[in-house]
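Reopening this one. Same input as before:
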Amino acid sequence: MLRSNAYGFLATLGSHGVAPHVRLVQHLAVTDDLVVWIGTSPRSRKVADIAANPDIQVIYAVEDRAAFAYLSVAATVSVVDDERERAAKWEDGLAAFFPAGPLGDDFVLLRLDPLRLELMDFTRRLHPDPFGLLPVVVERHAGVWTPTPPDRAP
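Same output, byte for byte:
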């Protein structure tokens, strides 16, 4: 779902720690181990929020409207300024936002290392009973993904 839907919503805790900031972003790459890469400016609110809350998880959510599905990724996040990584993840369409290109001083990457995935997909019948009221959840512990009961109020 991540690879076939390039846009999603990234939520960070606001730099004042009060309310979340949510914005539409395009992810540039998804690795086989589900690391999500997003390009941004080092002067963006995203980077400021991460700097103010370095130990906080972010949430990245994508929708597949045709499948009536969503995936929510809870992840740790780091800002990556490595020139090789920036060049490798660069897409030409980003030049409108970052005219100096992948090696310019206004382009960095966010690396989202997933800890928890929540998925609901009605076309693939990925939803526990009762029908559609809870997502399928897996969490990563020591590099291993394991099914986890979804959060639900008593």
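So the earlier flakiness isn't reproducible anymore. For the record, The mean pLDDT is 89.
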